[in-house]
Amino acid sequence: MIPSSQQDLMRMLLPKEPDVGSIEPISPLEFQEAARQQLSSDPVLANIQKLGRAAKNLIVPETPLDVALMAAPPLKVGKGLLKTTEYLYTPKFKNQQLVEKNFTERLQGSYKTPKEMHDAAVKLNPAFQQEIGDMARNLGLEKAPKFIDKGGKKFDVEVKTLDSIIDKRLRGKEISEITDPIRTRVFVNRPENADDMVAQLRKRYDVLDEGEKLIKATGFQARNVNVAYKAPNGETIIGEIQLISKPMADAAAKAHPYYTQQRSLRQSFYKQNPNATKIPLRIEKKEEELINIQKGFFKEARKEMDDSFLEKVVTTK
Fold first, then answer.
1. Which domains does the chain have, with CATH numbers?
2. CA pair distance 115, 113, nearest whole angstrom
3. Cβ neighbours of 186 (radius 10 Å)
4. What's the whole-model pTM score?
5. Are 253 and 301 in contact (CB under 8 A)?
6. CA dihedral sign, ordered 179, 181, 186, 187
7. Which residues contact 250 (CB under 8 A, 6 or more apart)?
8. By 3-state DSSP, what share of the chain in percent is helix, strand and coil, each rounded to 5?
9. What's the pLDDT band for 32 if we cut at 50, 70, 90?
């Protein structure tokens, strides 16, 4: 079957999975790139393509346009090899949770214990951070440091701690569903800077992009992007890059102790009262008090941020 449109081609290439909503439109360049994956109608060229793909997907250009496209950015080309990446923009999908679950399971389904994931994260993190740092610097952006100071002590914020992975598991999350075993931040001055960073990430990795997200209760805003990091030895893990303005990041550091306290209120109550069906009014009032403190930090941060950040919000929680 020969596809009659870009969307038809995308449907043919997508894996047979449950419906997860609308398909992200692709550009003419991406359409040409995907079309080259189809075998030529000429049987001689088709056989050459089959042989080439057995040798790591050698692409045989069929037209002068193919030759030009193979040399054009943002495609990854080297010695006749063409690699494509997947871009999933979750606001376009009806079932965003299923899209994320499929993405994480494909990459991290082999990790069966928290220790396995943590060991892999420690091993793969340095090369991942180097790649992200290089991309950010090439765009004139700043990547967050590896350590932060808390109470006079340094904490590594690039690798999720083993205790944190265990805690996620105890709270019902599958190990494969953890989206930030390795992570970092890149500071952006405008939403366009975040778009530029995502464009660079798409050239190298499969990407899951949630767009600009606003936490309505507090006013916190950032753009979380997950990428499929693959080491030279074939190991895969998910890396998270949070694209955030510097004022918002500074406010988050101030608000974090209050957020931690707020989150622990209900957890502690239900741990002590496992059969409870209603949260006491005193706890709700304390939560509201802590949320208002956080809201104050983020409100002040807005005064130093570009107004266009709010205009770009596509996800709210």
1. 6-84 (no CATH), 92-245 (3.30.460), 249-316 (no CATH)
2. 5
3. 23
4. 0.73
5. no
6. positive
7. 301
8. 50, 20, 30
9. very low
